[in-house]
Design brief:
- By secondary structure, the protein is of the alpha+beta class.
- Helix content is 48%, strand content 17%.
- The strands form two sheets. The chain has a four-stranded antiparallel beta sheet with strand order 1-4-6-5. The protein has a two-stranded antiparallel ribbon with strand order 2-3.
- α4 runs antiparallel to α5.
């Protein structure tokens, strides 16, 4: 369990360097959705600290770059408690975390049970919604009018 300061630090890292996704993965015969949170960075010390705080795994990142890069990721049954703990500290990716939390909760409640069409459709919608949120940014005027972010109003 992270302290509040650690959870806020991790949330900041996810805001700036992270990705929250719910991709449809798997082989030809078996496709499934899984919630994943990743952070890619060229400094492995940052990712090792992250892994020491919350678990997850670190792998070399294969993108063609001048510098070597690594990717930390967390998924499966560990992603729901992780997202729930950092969610209060997220700003730009809070809605993405909300969608991912809903998706992870469905996934966990349906583990080891064949998914019916309604659940698959809902998972597909959640996956699309998460992609849409990555491209929806508020205008500066909208943010300035948001009293939750600007308490002086």
């Amino acid at each position: 369990m992270m302290t509040e300061i650690e959870a806020a630090w991790v949330a900041g890292l996810i805001e700036g360097e992270g990705c929250i996704s719910f991709p449809n993965t798997g082989s030809k015969g078996y496709k499934y959705y899984t919630v994943r949170v990743t952070v890619t960075n060229t400094d492995p010390r940052l990712l090792i600290r992250l892994r020491n705080l919350v678990g997850g795994s670190i792998y070399p990142h294969s993108a063609k770059r001048k510098k070597s890069a690594w990717q930390w990721w967390i998924g499966g049954k560990n992603v729901l408690p992780f997202l729930a703990q950092i969610q209060p500290y997220l700003i730009g990716k809070r809605e993405q975390a909300d969608v991912a939390i809903a998706a992870a909760a469905i996934k966990l409640s349906r583990s080891n049970v064949h998914q019916n069409n309604k659940i698959k459709q809902h998972q597909a919608w959640l996956s699309r919604r998460l992609q849409e949120l990555k491209h929806e940014l508020p205008s500066l005027a909208d943010v300035e009018m948001d009293t939750t972010l600007n308490p002086t109003m």
